């Protein structure tokens, strides 16, 4: 049994959850503790008690701890990647890549602890000096989704600690294995007891307790829009700071002048890799008339060559869907798209087993053509390997269609026109804009986040993370 880390001790939960491998549902990865409300409150109290001392720790202390954590993650990339692929279902190369990213994030924020700075200004009043400094905000509650089981926890935990905050971390129920391994590494890094706490358990119990507790100064949340709205309502009611990263319906425009190979690679990569379970996945392809048929033919050819299999098997391109309810949602949206007039041109078939007879949640990637902008498949996030195609007359219409969405996370274009690329970078209504690169797949040292219904609050990652994890103080001194 894998336990929760509360106030520096490994503690049993009130119940247990079973972690199942989606590539082979006979494979029980482990049993993990599930905390209840009282245990969550104990973790919050421990973090609250640890804050005064930790908030005054030196940048050198914080650098050393975060750098140690980053080094261990990087050294154990194969083992951590194997756990990630086994519990979440992304392929081994993708999983190891995510682990490396997490290690690099800890290294980056180790440096940020040293680089934290402020401003010294002259006052408008004679003889007075003004200093602007940043201070930690207190205890932060970190709530994460299942699709990036180590990178998203890393990009919340590392800046929280780097800037001197204490943490209560609640991972997603489906992926406790990666969260537990990360907590184990943190528990041996030299952090004082209570500074970092792992509390696995249900969102409605552990998550909700974090949202409501006045000792939690801020919540950083990544997950679905529905849960994000609950976070916003609870935090607003008690005036706590919060940050939300939620869904996407990310468009990728393919113009007549695109390099066909580049366009197809970007579309297949960001539409289907990681089983399409990425908030930045290109799920809406907007293709101009002159290239439409050639592009679709090349997509289908590439899709037919993809190997859908056990996430940990060498040569697998696409692993399984994460669980039965996500699989049901993917299939439901394929049905809705067809009922509304879309054409399922390729894939979309659930496979009860892989070629070796392993029971799992396998789904062949689906391409749905001839869709119209108002269809549900073009408005709502599916969160699976399901991509729809909309025809556009020209660049102007394509841009308008791309922007016509309640979401605004990542937006892409494939073109060889400098004029259109430049115009698109300025006019795409999204937090991240991609020219001839996939909409999914971002650097770890620059801001991440979206606009409209995709995000709320300051950006995550890079030095912009300080906006959320610190509060500004302005000090006036009469000389
Ligand atoms: P989810 O909203 O179901 O769960 C996210 C987390 O919230 C989990 O840890 C869950 O246990 C917790 N939770 C559930 N109910 C809660 C409550 N009442 N109070 C507090 N916490 C609660 O999302 P998911 O299914 O785990 O993840 C998929 C979603 O995440 C997709 O919509 C995807 O787009 C989004 N996502 C967004 C980004 C981004 O940065 N924009 C990145 C990855 C995933």
From TrEMBL:
CDD domains in the record: ALDH_KGSADH-YcbD (cd07097)
UniProt key word Chaperone: no
Keywords on record: Oxidoreductase
Aldehyde dehydrogenase domain: residues covered: 16-474
Pfam families, per database record: Aldedh
Transmembrane annotation, as ranges: none
Record: active site: 245
Top-rank taxon: Bacteria
Family as reported in the entry's similarity comment: Belongs to the aldehyde dehydrogenase family.
PANTHER family xrefs: ALDEHYDE DEHYDROGENASE-RELATED
Listed name of the protein: Aldehyde dehydrogenase family protein
Organism encoding this protein: Roseateles paludis
